Amino acid sequence: MKRRYVLTFPPEIVDEPITYNLIRNYDLKINILKAEINPGKEGNLLLEFESEKANLDKGINYLEEKNIACLPIEAKIRFDQQACIHCGSCTAVCFSRALTMHKLSWELIFEPEKCVACGLCVKACPLELFHLDF
Known about the structure:
24% helix, 2 domains, 134 residues
């Protein structure tokens, strides 16, 4: 199973090999999709995990024990679908294909689990319907 999570960690944990421990101890395949790490401040990582559900759950528990906030990517993206006029502007910039147009109805389809938190949709939407908390 594959899942994407945004990890927010405090500055005091910078010296710990978090991703190494997740790989070695919990048999997780990790893909770092985005990182914002500021010296002396908290950091954010968008990670894609791949593993069996049991190992993934153990890895998430490990992160929580280390006081690392671990939220699914869907919790960090807000999209006001009710106000959407389905213009498709956001689909033109979405290289991860999280935003597509339905081929028959021409309505916007948003699949947040595919999102890489690039923020291009935020800039492309003429109605400012996307908000990214990363």
